[in-house]
Design brief:
Layout: E1 12-14, E2 20-28, E3 31-34, E4 45-48, E5 52-56, E6 59-62, H1 76-81
Length: about 110
């Protein structure tokens, strides 16, 4: 287990295999806000801090199976196996957005 206070602005966020997913803009409550510059749609996207597997070398690693933010396909496990086929839910955080069932991602 990690301490969420260790997640800092500008830390890289990577999937379980170490591939770049985004950059931390800030931590809001129990969510990690990603920068807009890493987003395909230019909007902020959020990850629940419970999606974090570990923090190493100034990098946040997400748990395998975590749905990816908009602009990325599938989930981490699908991406790792090359079978990603689409988005796992609305992760925009905007009106009508919710969490993907059981994922903790907003």
């Amino acid at each position: 287990m990690f301490e969420k206070w260790r997640i800092k602005e500008h830390m890289e966020v990577s999937d379980a295999a170490g591939r770049h997913i985004g950059t931390v803009d800030e931590v809001e409550d129990n969510r990690i806000k990603l920068t807009r510059s890493d987003s395909a749609d230019g909007a902020h996207h959020y990850l629940d801090w419970e999606s974090v597997d570990r923090i190493e070398d100034n990098r946040v690693y997400l748990k395998a199976g975590t749905p990816l933010p908009a602009g990325r396909e599938g989930t981490l496990s699908e991406t790792e196996s090359g079978t990603g086929t689409g988005m796992a839910g609305d992760l925009s955080g905007g009106p009508g957005a919710g969490t993907t069932s059981g994922s903790g991602v907003r």
